[in-house]
Design goal:
single chain, 321 residues, mainly alpha
């Protein structure tokens, strides 16, 4: 096909969740519910970390970054998904699609780095408790978080720019409920081999390196826990590590299936949609509960905030103190 005279479409059409047939309305209702739970759970984490100075520690600093990522990740596509369903108009403008693609992968890639930093923080806290305060200083934590966000941006920007410059002549229908790289490349004209190869290499480097580092950190943590003198400490530490690893396996397992393929545009998009729901909707809801459900400090902070009716802004808290 001659793509030199191709006119780029002003809008794309998203298939949405229509492939679920009679369950379509239920799936949209579930998406709305999961989005609300994600906003409330992750928003609560960010709020209590800002308000309660007892939680202004490296672990909760990274956890608030993870909550911010989860809010941004779901907000990048769920509001548009629900708006299209309510208006019965599945269109999305070209620039909106590229912007959605950019933010979706920015938050997604940065999440891997932040989860790696959380595992690093737990490794230092459990394996080197006496050196924890000198290693994980506020300056170091800030630099690590900034590096994670910058690394996420650098990882995706080249691929997003290349996708934005492709001609789209064959079709303007995206077989997904958001602008994902595979369905978008499926309808793109021109040669997409370079983009797919670049995306695959970035995925391998980012996902595999972060997974390897995270697993090694938790292996050292487990070995340290096993050497603890009292069984009560082991009983407290093991459930925490197990819950963290549950998030890791769910997140990485779904991403492995969707993105670690040399030719993502030829994948089964129906299956990809189901797996994407786990990665994009369920994991952001699980994160705040998994990382805080056994945390007494977070429970006490929530109880104090409810009991004292502390305002959101930190300045109010200082006035009361």
């Amino acid at each position: 096909m001659d793509v030199t005279n191709c006119t780029r479409p002003a809008h794309f059409l998203l298939v949405g969740l229509s492939t679920f047939g009679r369950m379509e309305s239920m799936m949209y209702a579930i998406a709305f519910l999961l989005y609300l739970l994600s906003l409330m759970g992750n928003g609560l984490i960010i709020m209590i970390v800002i308000v309660d100075h007892h939680l202004q520690k490296p672990m909760y600093f990274f956890l608030s970054n993870l909550s911010l990522i989860d809010i941004g990740h779901t907000t990048s596509f769920i509001p548009k998904l629900l708006l299209n369903y309510l208006s019965a108009n599945n269109s999305i403008c070209f620039h909106c699609c590229v912007t959605q693609l950019c933010f979706y992968f920015l938050f997604g890639v940065t999440e891997f780095f932040i989860i790696t930093l959380i595992s690093l923080d737990r490794y230092v806290a459990i394996c080197h408790p006496l050196r924890y305060a000198t290693i994980m200083t506020s300056g170091v934590c800030l630099k690590l978080a900034m590096g994670a966000w910058f690394g996420g941006f650098i990882s995706i920007i080249c691929q997003v720019v290349m996708i934005a410059k492709l001609p789209y002549c064959t079709s303007n229908v995206i077989n997904h409920f958001f602008c994902d790289v595979g369905p978008v490349l499926k309808i793109a004209g021109g040669d997409t081999v370079i983009i797919e190869t670049l995306g695959f290499l970035v995925s391998v480097v980012v996902i595999m390196s972060s997974l390897l580092f995270t697993l090694i950190s938790y292996l050292f943590i487990i070995f340290t826990i096993l050497r603890m003198p009292t069984s009560s400490r082991q009983q407290r530490a093991f459930p925490t590590c197990a819950s963290h690893l549950i998030v890791v396996f769910i997140l990485y397992g779904s991403v492995f299936f969707v993105y670690l393929r040399p030719t993502v545009k030829n994948s089964s998009f129906r299956v990809m949609k189901v797996v994407s729901i786990v990665y994009t909707m369920i994991t952001p809801v699980l994160n705040p509960f998994i990382y805080t459900i056994r945390n007494n400090e977070v429970k006490e902070a929530v109880q104090k905030m409810i009991a004292r009716n502390i305002p959101v802004l930190p300045c109010f808290k200082k006035d009361r103190d």
